[in-house]
């Protein structure tokens, strides 16, 4: 088991980051900290996407003056690019929501943001 | 929230170089690592640098929200019209129809490593440029809105 | 001109609303009339393209569209050794049904919102965001590429969350928008992880290619859970329905009517994943997943209606009814999935159950949209959504009352309206599957009727109230929007058979026919 | 009670994902036919040396249009939140 983990180290870090992000999101009460946990999970999923496309000792898939050697898989890197921009967009919007809620409610504590009845 | 004079002058000095480097990353998107989004983000860091160094009021003189919105809408329309141009060339939407036949941005290249010729890749440089402008405009407008939000908060 | 447009319909389906949205900030600056004209033009164009595409699919079978290839209809490039490498839109009969729903509903609510939102500020942004939500939903239901589905899911989540928070309402709407956006982003992350697992194993993003290469390893089961749970959450199924009442109640009424269609697009995504991607009869345990949908459906039905009775905010009450009606769709299609294996049971009642479920999707989009629009009309005139403060509006708002009666009778499944047509299909087929479920469905229907009679009484009947003396009928665009949906509710109720034969039956065949879905791309071009 | 529930969710997640980490082979992806096609034909078809950019803008250009739309949605959303509201526009939730 340990040899596989050392071999699949990136996937192991992805799992640790996702669980950490989830732990932050579930335990913290400040909205901004919850959003930090969310963006931590987003970068973990991006790392997972890129890691699925790696080949042993491969070079970047760019043909300008490229040294010899197998090339990493390009599709997954394109998906990660899209996912990073989507992460930026969602974080920007969620943060602006949190700012307006702070101005209107005066608090950033998720427990106190409860004016909506159940 | 005004930084010291030293920070402000270095920020002003560094701002044009940031833009030029971002533009380099955008234009060489199809040859070297980078492209529309990464180059646009580098350019947006240039404007962010100015916003951090200077107070909100005297920055809005130089980086006007209206200009950035036009920047953003122009980038999106370049991208969409490039997509529609594929339709009028008889190919499906989003087709790179001007690659590979000789004139501007069209020199064909053979498979395999080469030194990289800027005049290649059909629509890609145009799309890269469109997306670069859009990301620059978009991120700066987001920063300006958030700063205006903070300014209002301070006034209250 | 006709052949040019007809050939590129799937591309125009997304390009037209996007163009309308991108030009909105520029056109918006030129004054109110120009902006409204641009909005109506964009809505008409999008709906026309959508209905033309649906008509073409129902006439000529599945429509393929490859973005950026040599020719629009060639899914497999010659030198690619039989694998599709670009993004392919695969619009089969089920997608055509969803495109029809989105087109009709978006046209109705856009006309409605011209008058309903006229008092708000920042209207260019509102209409641009509405077009983006419509484009996101249309993209979600017609794409054949898994990552493209994720991108459109993200567009509709972001646009939906921003529209929910549009009115700000001293922070209450922003709170609902924040919670909706937070849950949607978490769901989208899970979908992205599932895409990472699938592309890590099969190196393909096209749904048909993934389906043909699927080997049901344990990783695929994890990917299935990571795909099914967020989509079930976004379509408002019970264990994760907490965002629905907040988001539906605080959003502007025209947006709420379209959020119903947006959550049905997630329901379509759930069915597409369960039937077309994982629906292989040999490995896939269709019985367990059928019962998963059935349990989800029954829970949604019951919890939805019981939570709806005590509500005093009319839109929150209707939101809980939306959750309970989603239960009917899940029950209908769940019964179909549960008997997917044995052919005779499927032929006997499985297909009618699925037909009932799918027919209920379009019916619910129409009458629930109508109900939300009438609630918006009442709010437009009286300024409150609190049932205790409303009363006696029937005297001054006759048309709104008539539209509300049509919607309320339809949701309760009373015969002359479309709710009854689809619920009858569900009752009779589910009864043969297991009588208990059918009885639960009938009880919930009766509770829905009771709840809406109470709402009707407290809103429209009773003496005319002093503070609503100045109330009169809503402006014409709002009536036109409501009339558009009401016409479908009445037409589908009086003559359901043509709708079932032409629109619903092909959709059921397309949903069940996994081999056909794969052959359309990989089989031959 | 809350902490027990959350730690249960975390453990469940950790276990499921640990299996994922151990099972997916890192370093040698089982199938690479689509990517080999991209590496083989990107220069010839799109004329770009950077295969990732050729995928982002040519082979899967429609995704990038969707993504630029996502960024545009975010900018509109932020603009919508910080707009100046007319007085009396906000409905007091009674």
Describe how the helices and strands are arranged.
The complex is a heterotetramer of chains A (118), B (156), C (525) and D (94).
Chain A: H1 2-7, H2 9-27, H3 31-51, H4 74-105
Helix pairs in contact in A: 2-3, 3-4
Chain B: H1 5-27, H2 36-53, H3 56-60, H4 65-88, H5 124-155
Helix pairs in contact in B: 1-2, 2-5, 4-5
Chain C: H1 2-7, H2 9-28, H3 32-60, E1 63-66, E2 88-91, H4 93-116, H5 123-142, H6 146-164, H7 172-202, H8 207-213, H9 218-234, H10 243-250, H11 253-277, H12 286-308, H13 314-338, H14 343-382, H15 398-411, H16 418-433, H17 435-460, H18 476-494, H19 496-512, H20 514-523
Antiparallel strand pairs in C: 1-2
Helix pairs in contact in C: 2-3, 2-5, 3-4, 3-5, 4-5, 4-11, 4-14, 4-18, 4-19, 5-6, 5-11, 6-7, 6-11, 7-9, 7-10, 8-20, 9-11, 10-11, 10-13, 11-13, 11-14, 12-13, 12-17, 13-14, 13-16, 13-17, 14-15, 14-16, 14-18, 14-19, 15-17, 15-18, 16-17, 16-18
Descriptive notes:
The complex is a heterotetramer of chains A (118), B (156), C (525) and D (94). Chain A has 118 residues and is mainly α. Chain A contains four helices and no strands. Helices cover 66% and strands 0% of the residues of chain A. Chain A is elongated, with a radius of gyration of 19 Å. Chain B is an all-alpha fold and 156 residues long. In chain B, 65% of the residues lie in helices and 0% in strands. Chain B contains five helices and no strands. The longest helix of chain B has 32 residues, at 124-155. Chain C has helices at 2-7, 9-28, 32-60, 93-116, 123-142, 146-164, 172-202, 207-213, 218-234, 243-250, 253-277, 286-308, 314-338, 343-382, 398-411, 418-433, 435-460, 476-494, 496-512, 514-523, and strands spanning 63-66, 88-91. With 525 residues, chain C is mostly helical. Chain D has a domain at 32-83. The longest helix of chain D has 22 residues, at 2-23. The radius of gyration of chain D is 24 Å and the shape is flat. The model of chain D has no long low-confidence stretch (mean pLDDT 83). Chains in contact: A-B, A-C, A-D, B-C, B-D, C-D. The interface between A and C is medium-sized, with 31 and 33 residues.
Q: Please, what is the average pLDDT of chain B? A: 84
Low-confidence stretches of chain B: none
State the separation between the terminal residues of chain B, measured CA to CA: 16 Å
Write the CATH architecture name of chain A: Orthogonal Bundle
Helix content of chain A: 55-70%
Strand content of chain A: under 5%
Structurally, the number of domains of chain A stands at 1
CATH topology group of chain A: Helix Hairpins
The ordered string of helix (H) and strand (E) elements of chain B is HHHHH
**Outline type of chain B:** elongated
Structural class by sheet pairing and helices of chain A: mainly alpha
Q: Mean of residue pLDDT of chain A? A: 87
């Amino acid at each position: 088991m340990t040899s596989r983990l050392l071999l699949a180290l990136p996937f192991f870090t992805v799992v640790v980051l996702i669980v950490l992000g989830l732990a932050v999101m579930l335990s913290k009460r400040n909205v901004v900290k919850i959003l930090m946990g969310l963006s931590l999970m987003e970068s973990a999923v991006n790392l997972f996407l890129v890691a699925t496309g790696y080949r042993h000792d491969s070079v970047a898939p760019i043909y300008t003056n490229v040294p010899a050697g197998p090339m990493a898989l390009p599709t997954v890197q394109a998906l990660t690019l899209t996912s990073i921009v989507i992460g930026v967009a969602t974080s920007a919007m969620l943060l602006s929501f949190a700012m307006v809620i702070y101005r209107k409610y005066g608090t950033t504590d998720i427990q106190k943001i409860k004016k909506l009845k159940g | 929230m005004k930084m010291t004079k030293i920070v402000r002058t270095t920020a002003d000095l560094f701002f044009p170089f940031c833009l030029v480097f971002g533009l380099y990353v955008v234009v060489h998107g199809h040859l070297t690592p980078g492209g529309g989004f990464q180059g646009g983000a580098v350019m947006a860091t240039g404007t962010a640098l100015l916003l951090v160094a200077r107070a909100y009021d005297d920055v809005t003189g130089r980086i006007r929200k209206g200009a950035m919105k036009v920047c953003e809408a122009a980038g999106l329309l370049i991208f969409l019209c490039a997509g529609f141009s594929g339709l009028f060339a008889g190919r499906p939407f989003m087709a790179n129809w001007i690659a590979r036949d000789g004139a501007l941005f069209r020199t064909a290249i053979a498979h395999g490593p080469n030194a990289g010729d800027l005049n290649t890749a059909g629509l890609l440089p145009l799309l890269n440029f469109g997306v670069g402008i859009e990301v620059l405009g978009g991120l700066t407008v987001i920063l300006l809105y958030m700063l205006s939000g903070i300014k209002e908060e301070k006034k209250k | 001109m006709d052949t040019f447009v007809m050939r590129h319909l799937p591309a125009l389906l997304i390009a037209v609303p996007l163009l309308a949205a991108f030009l909105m900030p520029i056109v918006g600056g030129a004054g109110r009339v120009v902006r409204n004209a641009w909005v109506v033009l964009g809505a008409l164009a999008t709906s026309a393209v959508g209905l033309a595409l649906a008509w073409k699919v129902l006439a000529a079978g599945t429509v393929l569209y490859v973005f950026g290839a040599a020719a629009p209809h060639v899914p497999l490039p010659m030198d690619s050794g039989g694998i599709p490498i670009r993004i392919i839109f695969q619009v089969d009969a089920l997608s055509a049904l969803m495109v029809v729903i989105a087109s009709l509903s978006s046209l109705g609510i856009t006309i409605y919102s011209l008058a309903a939102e006229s008092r708000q500020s920042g209207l260019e942004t509102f209409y641009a965001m509405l077009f983006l939500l419509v484009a996101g939903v249309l993209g979600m239901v017609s794409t054949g590429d898994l990552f493209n589905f994720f991108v459109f899911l993200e567009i509709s989540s972001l646009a939906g969350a921003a529209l929910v928070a549009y009115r700000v309402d001293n922070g209450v709407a922003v709170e609902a928008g924040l919670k909706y956006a937070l849950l949607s982003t978490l769901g989208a992350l899970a979908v992205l992880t599932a895409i990472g697992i699938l592309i890590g194993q099969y190196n393909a993003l096209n749904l048909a290619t993934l389906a043909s290469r699927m080997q049901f390893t344990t990783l695929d089961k994890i990917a299935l859970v990571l795909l099914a749970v967020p989509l079930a959450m976004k379509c408002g199924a019970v264990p994760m329905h907490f965002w629905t009442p907040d988001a539906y109640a605080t959003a502007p009424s025209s947006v709420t009517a379209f959020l119903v269609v947006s959550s049905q697009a997630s329901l379509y995504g759930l069915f597409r994943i369960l039937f077309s991607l994982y629906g292989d009869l040999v490995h896939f345990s269709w019985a367990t997943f059928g019962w998963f949908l059935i349990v989800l459906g029954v829970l949604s039905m019951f919890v939805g209606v019981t939570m709806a009775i005590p509500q005093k905010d009319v839109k929150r009450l209707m939101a809980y009814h939306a959750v309970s009606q989603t239960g009917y769709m899940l029950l209908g299609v769940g019964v179909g999935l549960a008997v997917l294996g044995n052919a005779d049971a499927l032929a006997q009642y499985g297909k009618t159950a699925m037909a009932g479920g799918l027919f209920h999707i379009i019916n619910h989009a129409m009458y629930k949209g109508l109900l939300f629009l009438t609630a918006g009309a009442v709010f437009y005139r009286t300024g409150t959504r609190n049932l205790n403060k409303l009363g006696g509006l029937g005297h001054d708002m006759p048309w709104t009352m008539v539209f509300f009666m049509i919607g309320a009778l339809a949701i309760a499944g009373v015969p002359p309206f479309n709710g009854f047509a689809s619920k009858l299909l569900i009752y009779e087929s589910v009864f043969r599957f297991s009588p208990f479920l059918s009885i639960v469905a009938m009880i919930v229907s009766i509770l829905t009727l009771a709840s809406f009679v109470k709402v009707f009484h407290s809103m429209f009947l009773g003496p005319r109230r002093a503070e609503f003396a100045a109330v009169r009928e809503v402006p014409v665009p709002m009536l036109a929007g409501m009339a558009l949906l009401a016409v479908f509710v009445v037409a589908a109720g009086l003559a359901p058979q043509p709708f079932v034969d032409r629109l619903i039956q092909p959709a059921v065949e397309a949903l069940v026919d996994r081999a056909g879905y794969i052959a359309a791309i990989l089989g031959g071009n | 009670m809350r902490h027990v529930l959350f730690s249960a969710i975390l453990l469940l997640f950790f276990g499921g994902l640990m299996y994922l980490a151990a099972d997916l082979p890192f370093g040698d992806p089982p199938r690479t036919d689509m990517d080999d096609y991209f590496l083989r034909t990107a220069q010839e078809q799109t004329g770009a040396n950077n295969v990732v950019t050729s995928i982002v803008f040519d082979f899967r250009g429609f995704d990038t249009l969707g993504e630029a739309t996502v960024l545009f949605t975010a900018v509109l959303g932020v603009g919508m939140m910080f707009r100046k509201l007319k007085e009396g526009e906000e409905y007091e939730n009674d």
